[in-house]
Amino acid sequence: MSSIAPNEHSASRAHASDLKATTTQNLYALLAPITVPPTSPRAIFTNWGLAFRCRPLSVFEPETENQCRTVIELARREGVTLRAGAVGHSPSDLACTGGFMIRTDKMNKLLHVDEANGLVTVQPGMTLNALHEHLASHDLALPSVGSISDQSVGGVVVTSTHGSGLHPTAPSNISLSVRSLIIILSSGVQVTCSRDPKEDPDLFLATLCGLGTTGFITQVTFKCEKRFKLKEIAFNMPFDNFVDDFENIATSAEHVRCWYFGQRGVVRVSQCNRTSEPYKAAGSWFRNVFLTYHVVQFMLYIGRFWPQVNTWTARFASWVMKEHTEGVDDSWKIFNVDCRYPQHTTEFALPLSNTPAALRDLRTWFEKEMADPNGIRPHFPFEVRFSEADDVWLSPANGRRTCWVGVAQYKPYSLPVPFQTLFAHFERIMIAHGGRPHWAKFHPFGPNELKETYPMWDKFLDVRKRVDEEGLWVNEYIRRCFGVEGIGAEGAEKGDERNKWRYGEIM
Ligand SMILES: Cc1cc2nc3c(=O)[nH]c(=O)nc-3n(C[C@H](O)[C@H](O)[C@H](O)COP(=O)(O)OP(=O)(O)OC[C@H]3O[C@@H](n4cnc5c(N)ncnc54)[C@H](O)[C@@H]3O)c2cc1C
């Protein structure tokens, strides 16, 4: 028997070898209580944006680590790939599979709180919304979060979900707040990994933003800070002024994020800083709900038939939001914004210094479309956010100070809207300026482009292979991007008529 590495959990090794001695029939029997019936709606995985749907061969809903190990043993035994499926907020086919799926929703417990050191350990299926509540009750908070908190902890960690800000001690990449992870590898053995040299730091840096290809994460320990409030000041400025003073604006507060409304030539800038001022609401129900949700949604609906209306909708939305506003609230409530309609979205991470030129090119292209009576009439706005350079191997901010630029096309009343041509133009401009795609969003990069832009690409693939020689965690997205093959039943996945998903296929 091989020796046990310091970061391996010996009980998990014993359990894994017990499972190896169990018959396949017995594995199915053990898993029966957590197998989703094929007739259940939960046997089909649909992403939140209603762009991708898949029917895995079997879906399991484990609550314990032993059950996860049993699913892994069954998948290996049957030669079927396995993916974790969480809240489905990835706007791509990242989580989709025609193999087995572990739904993580029931792995959602708070496991440990060390208030004095701000260390909190949770299971991966906990949503950020639930995590914020737990943390607040211990006077703690995550240093930064993105636009929403509906995602699961596992989902945000493996995609390096980001907020915004070039703040030295509050990194906008949520994965940077992770202190350690516990992972079940495809061998069934459970390991702890972290930046500690004794705890396989290579595996740690490959797993953060590793898209779930190194193993199934069962525990995440975050380093939190003391609960804090943010004061947000938001105002509009002309596009040219914004681009001319770009880096100063990007660093003008702890967390800066911006929205470019091309139809009015203005940028809305939001500056957020930590504060001890009393709570203060920004805006009213009439503005925040009636106008910017109900009226805008109806106008977007009309825009499906007469795209010119989209221009007026964008102008209207920008006009509604033109005021200088100030608000104070708990950090996560200020970080989050209302993302109310399912949407197609894509986003690129540009080197910060390339961004003004990229935005100018975006504006030039946009104005050309607007001048053409048959040109594209996009929804609004382009979102602009910031991240400090980091060391997570596949983080789009790896090694470079980053500006994220994103685009969305909303689906009013969940109805389909055109987006492919717009996104193709957008991608062309972003790629020309050195953009790296957001991993969770649909993008055109394959192994060659990725190898060129990620200095740690080969090392990442080596570590992935070390911990998953057979390709247990490979799905169509991973095959397309990483150029790796999955364990045996991939052929079945490829050929299965039920699982022919393409971008935007279902809506
Ligand atoms: C409205 C909206 C707003 C968004 N805002 C932002 C934003 O501000 N910033 C940003 O960067 N992104 C943003 N995103 C993207 C989102 O944060 C990511 O797609 C995130 O991964 C979604 O998490 P999820 O829990 O829905 O995971 P899913 O989409 O279900 O899965 C994502 C990936 O996580 C893997 N995974 C999940 N759990 C585990 C586990 N336990 N072990 C191993 N792998 C696991 C899955 O296999 C899959 O590869 C947004 C998306 C939407 C729809």
UniProtKB/TrEMBL annotation:
InterPro entries recorded for this chain?
ALO_C, FAD-bd_PCMH, FAD-bd_PCMH-like_sf, FAD-bd_PCMH_sub1, FAD-bd_PCMH_sub2, FAD_lactone_oxidase-like, Oxid_FAD_bind_N, Vanillyl_alc_oxidase_C-sub2
Q: List, alphabetically, the GO terms of the cellular component aspect.
A: membrane; mitochondrion
Specify the FAD-binding PCMH-type domain's residue ranges.
Answer: 52-227
The organism's superkingdom is given as Eukaryota
Which GO molecular function annotations are given, in alphabetical order? D-arabinono-1,4-lactone oxidase activity; FAD binding
Tell me if Oxidoreductase is a UniProt keyword of this record.
yes
Coiled coil (UniProt feature): none
Instruction: Give the enzyme class.
Output: oxidoreductase
One Pfam entry for this protein is: ALO
Pathway entry: Cofactor biosynthesis; D-erythroascorbate biosynthesis; dehydro-D-arabinono-1,4-lactone from D-arabinose: step 2/2
Per UniProt, the keywords (alphabetical) are: Oxidoreductase
Q: EC? A: 1.1.3.37
The record's section on PANTHER family has:
D-ARABINONO-1,4-LACTONE OXIDASE, L-GULONOLACTONE OXIDASE
Protein's recorded name: D-arabinono-1,4-lactone oxidase
Q: Which organism is it from?
A: Sphaerobolus stellatus (strain SS14)
